[in-house]
Amino acid sequence: MRLTLLGTGTSMGVPVIGCDCTVCTSPDPRNRRTRTAALLEARGTTILIDAGPDMRMQVLRHHVTYLDAVLLTHGHADHVGGIDDLRPFTMHSRIAARRRGPLPIYGDAATIARVRHQFDYAFDPAPSLSTRPSLATHVLNGPFRVNDLDIIPFTVNHGPNPITGYRFGRCGYITDGKTLPPATMQQLHGLDLLIINALRFTDHPLHFTVDEAVAVVEELQPRQALFVHMTHDFDHATVNAQLPPHIQLGYDGQVVELADD
Ligand SMILES: [Zn+2]
Ligand SMILES: [Zn+2]
Ligand SMILES: [Zn+2]
Fold first, then answer.
1. Cα(142) to centroid of ligand 3, in Å?
2. Containing domain of residue 83, as a range?
3. Residue 205 Cα, ligand 1 centroid: separation in angstroms?
């Protein structure tokens, strides 16, 4: 099982347009953060987690030419803004034939409703001369499988709004969390890798701070944790040096190989 961090930035990305801070102008490529998303490859199955505004460049950078499914965490623009750019994954006959049919896209009811509203043209049964993504939406209802891969969705509280995290074997994926319900904490024991959001150092109503994310990691005790969805408050090298070795900042393009069971 291989997890690739396609993006590790918060909603505006890093560098921030118009900002000349030391992180936004840093030559360290690990300080350049596209919007948070990931690619999971396991048992011959390839899954995209979130399709934000940077999705097209993320998949081009990693030579992703095929997807079995897309999992959405929630409907905020930084996680679904790139859905129209899924068109090539649903158009080329070679890709569509391998998968047989439209691209499956999973999310909770609110997320799927948002996608169907925001990209209504993609679901319009009337013929169109424009190309549009061919998507099959699936509302989450407990654990499910994509090919031979078992996926367990769980609830993450994005401030007052429940959104979705995913567990694949011994890998847990959380973005845009502020708190985790007790039932979710119970579902996340025994992890080799926990991906978890850490927005910045100061409090925010919708996102974990660094201290809050560290506290979750210390309670769940995964072998390794990587932070994502970060602002320009993090100079990668400086902050990593202050964190314990099993908790580090993720960076765009980081690949983690995991045991596949
Ligand atoms: Zn977000
Ligand atoms: Zn900046
Ligand atoms: Zn969000």
1. 22
2. 2-257
3. 13
- pLDDT, tens digit, for every residue of 20-70? 999 999 999 999 999 999 999 999 999 999 999 999 999 999 999 999 999
CA of 12 relative to ligand 1 center, distance in Å? 9
- Read off the CATH number of the domain in which 80 is found: 3.60.15.10
Q: What string of DSSP letters covers 176-212?
A: S-SB--HHHHHHT-S-SEEEEE---SS--SSS--HHH
Per-residue pLDDT tens digits for 162-202: 999 999 999 999 999 999 999 999 999 999 999 999 999 99
The total number of structural domains that make up the chain: 1
Tell me how far the alpha carbon of residue 36 lies from the centroid of ligand 1, in angstroms.
Answer: 7
Q: Ligand 2 centre from 21 Cα, in Å? A: 4
Report yes or no on whether pTM surpasses 0.85: yes
Lowest mean pLDDT among 124-128, 156-160, 245-249, 250-254: 124-128
